[in-house]
DNA sequence: CGTGATCTTGAAGGGGGTCAACTGGAGTGG
DNA sequence: CCACTCCAGTTGACCCCCTTCAAGATCACG
């Protein structure tokens, strides 16, 4: 299963020479850059005042903010991927979601004064920093920035709703399928290939996000590969049968009425098991 | 189990004569009323312009907005309880959360132009209506209103994070315990009794929210009663042992190191089963 | 009081949690 | 370069908890 792909997959889009910048120390940028990142039209960009904005760079594993830390800023992801999670008192880490380019982080800290969730970078990353006082003080608000914040927060709220989707499905393979569909959609939204991408997070993170044991994630990946829906090599994923994956992801609790997933054929010795589960889903 | 309580519990805080108002048709109010609901100081209330605001009243089962409907407004709950949910293509209803007084609904619709989730009233309820254009247009924004919206949305985002808490726990009784703790905290925040309250939602809604079958919810309630943590009669709940409930709610996957819940004694014939589970959780 | 919805309880069967062992790649230092 | 360690990932085996189906009990409402 390994070795045939891998080198072909996209590498980090950050140049290594960025390492000359001290980790975590601000670099400066401009408001217009943030607006551009968020897809604001050029006209609005130019009409916005030329306000300086600080940028923070992080390396793999760096913490953007800790759980329980005093809320000092919200962040817009400029590049890279972040994991948002909460740690229970007994140390169990619950992953709430993964965030990428143009997404907002830390907004849920506003209402209580501290961050209810932590965020760490899963790869080299950078963010724009918006201090809390700029969000809360009514003075000198910029209309374009307001809209950007509103949009991003609305999206963040919506995405947290999708958290229920992946955790609600009964079958573990369905949870994984939904997760992959979500990822695929987001890749597409970032104008990257929706069929082939590298997972930024480990199996344990995925497991926590789906609400299953990490061994189950392995087994579910294996199942999707068996059904010819995926091709997996370590963290590299290629979706072979998007329709089949979508059909599987639509399976909910109880049985599902999937008329025919053409490509769900697999090895003869495992056909019976597949038929078993397929029948389970069909009798609607 | 039934009959000893019930009549003592709080009834709806809405007077019945409100029925003269046509359901769903606007009644008018003022911006200052919304600001007061959201806990804004009197000074800020008076400094705010006297803008009229429409109110919408709903009866049990009325839909505030449908999933997929065009986004026209966001809402602030003035009274009553709402259920937010999404319906999958096969008809399965996933409950994302329950919202009460001073909470915001519909904000996640802003980023896509339609409501990704539906909301229905679980009891007689009323909301303040804020049309989308007032949220998005930069003109004539009111500072106090902005802060209120920001706070409420941050809270909503934070609460969606708590969704993971209830769905992530392995044991069904732990999910229910966490859910009840959340409810209790919110009751307290509304200055109502945190130990004794009426569930506004049915078992099926709770089940969907917890990610388990509704029969399992029944069994879990029974277990909590058996362990003397709760007293349950239909939808009336009284928390008998808050510490025990909290301890149970802190149990996560794997075993938990609960030193001693004093009140987890129960009937002799069921002691063995309890010991079984208790041992499961203790061997940490 | 009847009717339907909600809730409870029982029984059976399987999916996934848990533990354990193995593999493989990355980093380290001899 | 190899030995060694460490961690991520995979695979297997066991068995309990929850889903599912079914039926009864209770509640809400006209």
Describe the structure.
The structure is a homodimer of 284-residue chains. The first copy, chain A, is an alpha+beta fold. Chain A has two domains: 20-160, Jelly Rolls; 169-282, Winged helix-like DNA-binding domain superfamily/Winged helix DNA-binding domain (Arc Repressor Mutant, subunit A), CATH 1.10.10. The first copy, chain A, is 37% helix and 20% strand. In chain A, strand 5 (82-87) and strand 6 form a beta hairpin. The two termini of chain A are 35 Å apart. Mean pLDDT of chain A is 82; it is low at 1-24 and 255-284. Chains A and B meet through helix 4 of A and helix 4 of B. The structure holds a DNA duplex (30 and 30 nucleotides).
Short recap of the structure:
With 284 residues, chain A is of the alpha+beta class.
List the helices and strands and how they pair.
Two copies of one chain form a homodimer.
Chain A: E1 27-30, H1 31-37, H2 42-47, E2 52-58, E3 63-65, E4 73-79, E5 82-87, E6 93-99, E7 104-105, E8 118-121, E9 125-131, H3 132-136, H4 143-168, H5 172-189, E10 196-198, H6 203-210, H7 214-226, E11 230-233, E12 236-239, H8 242-249, H9 268-282
Antiparallel strand pairs in A: 1-2, 2-9, 3-8, 4-7, 4-9, 5-6, 5-8, 10-12, 11-12
Helix pairs in contact in A: 4-5, 5-7, 5-8, 6-7
The structure holds a DNA duplex (30 and 30 nucleotides).
């Amino acid at each position: 299963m390994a070795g045939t792909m891998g080198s072909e997959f996209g590498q980090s889009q950050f140049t290594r020479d960025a390492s000359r910048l001290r980790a975590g120390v601000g670099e400066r940028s401009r408001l217009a850059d943030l607006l551009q990142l968020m897809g604001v039209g050029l006209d609005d960009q130019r009409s916005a005042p030329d306000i300086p904005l600080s940028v923070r760079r992080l390396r793999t594993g760096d913490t953007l903010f800790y759980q329980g830390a005093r809320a000092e800023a919200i962040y817009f992801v400029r590049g890279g991927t972040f994991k948002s999670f909460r740690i229970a008192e007994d140390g169990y880490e619950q992953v709430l979601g993964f965030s990428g380019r143009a997404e907002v982080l830390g907004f849920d800290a506003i209402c209580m004064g501290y961050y209810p969730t932590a965020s760490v970078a899963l790869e080299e990353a950078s963010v724009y920093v918006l201090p809390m006082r700029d969000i809360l003080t009514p003075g000198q608000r910029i209309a374009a920035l307001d809209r950007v914040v509103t949009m991003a927060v609305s999206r963040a709220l919506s995405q947290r709703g999708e958290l229920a989707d992946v955790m609600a499905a009964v079958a573990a393979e369905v949870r994984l399928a939904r997760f992959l569909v979500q990822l695929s959609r987001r890749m597409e939204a970032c104008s990257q290939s929706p069929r082939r991408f590298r997972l930024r997070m480990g199996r344990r993170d995925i497991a926590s996000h789906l609400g299953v044991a990490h061994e189950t994630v392995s087994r579910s990946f294996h199942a999707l590969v068996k059904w010819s829906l995926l091709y997996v090599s370590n963290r590299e994923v290629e979706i072979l049968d998007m329709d089949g994956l979508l059909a599987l992801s639509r399976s909910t609790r109880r049985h599902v009425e999937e008329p025919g997933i053409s490509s769900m054929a697999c090895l003869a010795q495992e056909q019976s098991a597949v038929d078993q589960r397929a029948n389970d889903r069909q009798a609607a």
